[in-house]
Each structure stands twice: as structure tokens, then as C-alpha cells.
Design goal:
heterodimer, A: mainly alpha, ABC transporter involved in vitamin B12 uptake, BtuC, 13 helices, globular, B: mainly alpha, two-stranded antiparallel ribbon, 15 helices
């Protein structure tokens, strides 16, 4: 397999991560340890799962803001079902959560395709409906740690290997890395090695052209949004296993920062562009900022400020390059 | 009567909407009776409409060009927070009546100035860097709330002078000041959109911006102006929100984003740009606000409200699509992101 060279955006991101890590290490040498790295992997795993779904949606030229609602619905409903039926199996929970995700995703796709609605507004509407249905009919009562099914708690605490830390405690690599890697590989395979992936890129570049080239847009959209839904369902399970209790009003409201990290990673809403590696880097940058601002002596209140600046800078740079190229080719369609 | 019929014939969206408005009114009056039609309830409507009415106008303006402005709510919050520091005496002490009135004037000017700067930033990103409006305003939305968080650390800015709170709560002849201000803004906006060349260009841009560019219109300046005005309108919303709540904090008005989009779409604004009228948006706002107060009387939870808003949003968009399709039989070809 030929390894492609890095895109320009990925090089920028790598440089930013490297420089930033050096700065943080100088400010606080406690940062550069293996433990911090493994902690970051754990913190980023849920976001990475969602980000791979968001990447597919963005490449297709759409935007989906309903996935956090789907994730928390999947997690909450499956935990409540496990408690009421007494089935203490992770597989059962995952199946329920994925089914919910699949159903919600199909609804999104049908609404977007059949009525030609702008994806942002359509998913804004469906996310309110999904979330409203759950909170209205199932309530917003949390499930606390002592009630949580043991299979989930075990899954959340499971580690692939354990290293004793100097302070006497231990740390290790979280088992969440397995679903993350599987989903990333599946996403990569679908996007770059299948006809379906070609169709997703084609749809993102030009809907009209994709249609005339003979792609079945309905099928492609059904896939894109149900993929997003299923991925969100998996993330819901990972999330509740990680925090070990369920607060049904968590997660919702974080969708824009996850979209932001994918966009920072170089996915373009208007051109069928985006890479998996870029997405991973984008998520890493956001997580790095989240967890290391404290090392620099800034409170977590500064998070959004830096995320906003990086996001604006990255979209401005990529859009401006595309604009210059378009002007050279005498294209004035933006 | 003939005039009304003629008006309806000209614009089917508007007539459908008027019928819906009247129906909601009638149903609610039948269910709730006097409780709904009381002076008290109408007056509370007049207090609630302006703050998000300004946001809806801003959203409408952006949507007419085929774009969207996600940053209006955080723009209102940020400018409100910065203005609030003048009102609490954090910048200079408010030890005399003259200082207090000076602080109010400076605060209002600051709020409007900040909101204009924020709006212009959006415009420059979209026009000069060709960033898609969704992404540009998503970025500035996060940035504005980030600046607000960094300044306040998430805490509220409280303790405004009496005189400033009067602006939000005072009224003349039972009509709140803020409602009069809002009506003035609506009149100015509708003249701007329907009677000036600037307004015409906005609609044309939404129809086909490439064509407009080649007719010799400076589309970049137009877009910067549109988002600047949207920011300016958000600034008014910021003033009204902080004077009604009597404090300023990141996160105020978060639910207004969904509602502003809902009102614009409900009022017949085409999210792909080029179509939509102030009158429609006003009717949409009436429906939303009437339902809102009805929900309060029914004591719905905020989650149920969100469910209903989302459902109405989807329903209206779907109905609009079906009407549009029946009118033009040919499917809409050009799809913009």
C-alpha cells in the first residue's frame, strides 16, 4: 500500500501540536509523561468515535447536529432497559443503542432527501424532536453509579495493559481504543476503498454531478446518516461506561465543538474534502487544549476562546486557498 | 376586503401563514378563554417579543442571502457582558446621577459598537475569505462565547442602576418601551428590504450571487453590510436581554438560536436564499410567541417545548417544500450548501 504524503492542513496541525507540546512541557515538565498520553487517549476516545461519523457527513457536504442527542438517547435508553429487564449484557446494550441510532439516522436521511431541506436546519429540528421525545416520555431522572449495570462498569474500567505509577496507583491503556480503532478503520475503508465512498465524495463536490453520474443519492444519504446514527449509538455506550453514571441531559450541546474539531482537521463543507488523519489531529488539538490549559496557568474558561480562534484561522486559511485557486481558474461560484 | 384578497393571491405563503395564525388564536382562545386574552397576558407578550424579535430579524437577513448566522446569540451575550461592566461601575464609579447616566449612554454605545464589530468580522470572513457562512459563524459563535467566558469565568455581571432597568421594564400607555423600539426596527427593516436598492440586491444575491456579481454589483461589500446589520440587530437584543434579566452572563438566550431559525422559516424565508418577507416573519413570531405563552399556561417542561419547536420546524419546512413543488412542478435544481 502506498502511503500518501500529508496534506498541507495536516502538516500545519502537526506543527501546532508539536510547538504547543514543547511550550507546555517547558512551562510544566509534569506534562510530558506516558500517563498523560494514555489519559488523553481515554478522554479523546468518545469524541474520536463521533468525529469519524461527522467526517463522513461533512465530506458529503452536509452537517448533522443531532448526533449528541442520538448518543445520549442510545446510552440512556439502553441502561434503563438493562435495569428494567435485568439483562446485564454489554452486547444487548450496544445492540439497542445502535438500533436507536440507526432508526434516528434513517429518519434524518429520509427527511433531508425527500424534502430537499438544508441539512443543518433539518437535523436541528430532528435533534430537538428525538431529544424531546426521550425526555418527555422517559423523564430526565439520572442513573447513579451504584445502580449502573455491572457489565458496563467493568467495561469502563477495563484496561488493555496496566503500568504501576510512581505514586503507587496504576494507569493503563483503556479498552475503548478497540472500538475507536475499528470505527476509524471501517470509516477509512468505506471512504477510500468502496464505490459508496466515491459516491459520498461525489455528493459533497456537486450533488447535481453525482446524480448525473448515476449515483443513487437516496442510498448514499441513507448510508451517511445511518452511519452517523450507529456511530453515535456506540459512542453513547462508551460514554456511559466511561463516566459510570447517566445524566440524560449530558452531552447535548457539545455537538458544535465536535464538528469544530473535525473542521479544524481539514474537512471542508463545500468541497468533498477531508481525511481521517486530519480528523484525528483536529480532535487531538481540542483535547490537548482542554486538558493542558491548566498547565499554562489558564482556567478552563479559556477553552472556547482558543478553540474559536483555531477554528476561524483554519477555515479562513483553507477557504482562502480555495478562493485563490478558483479565482485563477476564473470560477466565481462562492 | 378586496385589497386583502389581492394581497393573499399575490403571496400564497403569507396567506397560509395568516390562516394558521388566526387558527392558533381561535383554538387557544377557545381552550384558555379569558386567561389568554387578558391585558396582562398581552402585555407580557409585548415584553417577551422584542428580545428575540431582534434576533429573528438578524437571522432572517442572513438567510435571505442564502447564508445563516449562528453567532447572533453569543454576539448579543458578549456585547451585553462588555457593556455591563460600565453599568456596574467596574470601569468608573457611579457615585453621582450624572455619572450614572453617562455610564448608561457609554454602555449602550459600547454594546452596539461591539456587536457591529462582531458582525463585520463575520462579513469579512464570509466575503473576503469565502468561508461558508455556516462555518464562519460557527467559528465566531464559539469565539464570542469563549471571549465572554474568558472575561467573566462564567460568572454573571450583576448590579445595574435603576434607570437602566426601567428601559427593560418601563412602558408608556401600557406599551413597553422595548416593544416600541422593536416596532421601529421592523419598520426600518421592511423599508430597507422592500424600498431600497440595497434590499433588492439582498434578494438578488440570495437568488443567484454569481449572476449578481457579473451585473457589476460589489457583492463582497454587500455581504459585509448584511452581516454587520445582523450583528447590529443582535446588539439591540443584547441590550434588551441584560436590562430585562438585570445581569449579563454567558449562556443567556441559548434557546433563541433554534427559535430564531424557526421563526424565519415559519415566516416563509427560504433557507436557500432569495425569498421571504418581514410581514411573514412577524406573523411567524406571533404564532411562536402565542404558543410560547400557551405552553406556559399549560405548564409544559422546557424539554416538551423543544420537542414541539423541533416538530413545528420540520413540519413547516416540509409543507413549504410541498407547496413549492406543486407550484413549480419542476424540482428545484440548484442546491447550495
Amino acid at each position: 500500500m502506498k502511503v500518501r504524503s500529508l496534506t498541507r492542513m495536516e502538516k500545519y496541525l502537526l506543527a501546532i501540536i508539536a510547538v504547543y507540546s514543547v511550550v507546555v512541557t517547558i512551562a510544566n515538565p509534569a506534562f510530558l509523561t506516558f500517563e498523560t498520553l494514555l489519559d488523553m487517549v481515554r478522554a479523546a476516545s468518545g469524541t474520536l468515535i463521533l468525529a469519524s461519523g461527522v467526517l463522513v457527513v461533512l465530506i458529503s457536504g452536509g452537517i448533522d447536529v443531532s448526533f449528541t442527542a442520538i448518543a445520549i438517547i442510545g446510552g440512556y435508553v439502553s441502561v434503563r432497559l438493562m435495569l428494567s429487564t435485568g439483562i446485564n449484557s454489554l452486547l444487548f446494550a450496544s445492540a439497542i443503542s445502535c438500533l436507536i441510532g440507526l432508526a434516528c439516522g434513517l429518519i434524518n436521511a429520509l427527511i433531508i432527501h425527500c424534502f430537499h431541506l438544508p441539512t443543518l436546519i433539518a437535523t436541528l429540528g430532528t435533534s430537538s424532536v428525538f431529544y424531546g421525545v426521550m425526555t418527555t416520555f422517559m423523564g430526565t431522572k439520572g442513573v447513579n453509579a451504584s445502580q449502573m449495570p455491572s457489565s458496563m462498569v467493568d467495561f469502563g474500567g477495563c484496561q488493555l495493559f496496566v503500568i504501576p505509577a510512581k505514586s503507587g496507583t496504576t494507569y493503563g491503556l483503556t479498552v475503548f481504543i478497540i472500538p475507536v480503532v475499528i470505527i476509524l478503520i471501517v470509516t477509512w475503508f468505506i471512504l477510500y476503498r468502496t464505490m459508496l465512498g466515491r459516491g459520498i465524495f461525489a455528493l459533497g463536490n456537486s450533488e447535481e454531478a453525482a446524480n448525473r453520474a448515476g449515483f443513487n443519492l437516496l442510498n448514499i444519504r441513507l448510508f451517511i446518516y445511518s452511519f452517523m446514527g450507529v456511530v453515535a449509538g456506540i459512542m453513547g455506550i462508551v460514554y456511559v461506561s466511561e463516566v459510570r453514571w447517566v445524566n440524560p441531559i449530558a452531552l447535548v450541546g457539545t455537538e458544535l465543538s465536535i464538528i469544530a474539531s473535525v473542521v479544524i482537521g481539514g474537512a471542508k463543507l463545500s468541497g468533498g474534502e477531508g481525511t481521517i488523519f486530519g480528523t484525528i489531529l483536529g480532535v487531538l488539538i481540542i483535547k490537548l487544549l482542554n486538558s493542558t490549559l491548566v498547565f499554562l496557568g489558564l482556567s478552563s474558561s479559556w477553552n472556547d476562546f482558543f478553540i474559536g480562534i483555531i477554528l476561524i484561522a483554519s477555515v479562513a486559511v483553507t477557504s482562502y486557498q480555495a478562493r485563490l485557486k478558483n479565482r485563477r481558474d476564473l470560477i466565481f461560484t462562492e | 376586503m378586496k385589497v386583502i384578497l389581492k394581497l393573499f393571491g399575490k403571496d400564497s405563503d403569507l396567506s397560509v401563514l395568516s390562516v394558521i395564525t388566526v387558527c392558533t388564536f381561535v383554538v387557544l382562545i377557545l381552550i384558555l378563554g379569558d386567561k389568554f386574552f387578558s391585558l396582562n397576558n398581552l402585555q407580557s407578550l409585548a415584553y417577551q417579543i422584542p428580545e428575540f424579535g431582534f434576533l429573528a430579524l438578524a437571522m432572517m437577513l442572513a438567510m435571505l442571502t442564502g447564508g445563516i448566522d449562528l453567532s447572533i446569540v453569543t454576539n448579543a451575550c458578549l456585547s451585553g457582558i462588555i457593556g455591563a461592566y460600565f453599568l456596574t461601575g467596574a470601569v468608573f464609579p457611579l457615585n453621582s446621577p450624572a455619572a450614572t447616566s453617562a455610564a448608561i449612554v457609554i454602555a449602550v454605545i459600547t454594546i452596539l459598537a461591539i456587536s457591529i464589530i462582531c458582525g463585520t468580522l463575520n462579513g469579512i470572513l464570509i466575503a473576503k475569505f469565502s468561508v461558508p457562512p455556516i462555518l464562519a459563524t460557527l467559528g465566531t459563535m464559539i469565539l464570542f462565547s469563549g471571549i465572554g467566558m474568558a472575561i467573566t469565568s462564567g460568572k454573571g455581571v450583576v448590579g445595574f442602576p435603576e434607570a437602566f432597568m426601567k428601559f427593560g421594564s418601563g412602558s408608556v400607555l401600557n406599551i413597553p418601551y422595548i416593544f416600541i423600539l422593536f416596532v421601529l426596527a421592523v419598520i426600518v427593516m421592511s423599508i430597507l428590504l422592500s424600498r431600497t436598492r440595497f434590499g433588492k440586491k439582498i434578494y438578488l444575491f440570495g437568488e443567484n450571487f454569481t449572476a449578481l456579481r457579473f451585473t457589476g454589483v460589489n457583492t463582497e461589500r454587500l455581504i459585509i453590510a448584511v452581516y454587520t446589520i445582523a450583528g447590529f440587530l443582535a446588539g439591540f437584543a443584547g441590550i434588551i436581554i441584560i436590562s430585562r434579566v438585570n445581569s449579563a452572563r454567558v449562556g443567556y438566550g441559548d434557546t433563541y438560536l433554534l427559535q430564531a431559525i424557526l421563526v424565519a422559516v415559519l415566516g416563509g424565508v427560504d433557507p436557500y436564499g432569495g425569498r421571504g418577507r418581514i410581514a411573514g416573519v412577524m406573523l411567524g413570531m406571533c404564532i411562536l410567541q402565542i404558543l410560547q405563552s400557551a405552553f406556559t399556561l399549560f405548564s409544559f417542561t422546557p424539554y416538551t417545548k423543544r420537542l414541539v419547536w423541533g416538530f413545528i420546524l420540520l413540519l413547516v419546512m416540509i409543507i413549504n417544500f410541498i407547496i413549492e413543488k406543486r407550484r413549480t412542478s419542476a424540482p428545484k435544481a440548484a442546491i447550495k450548501a
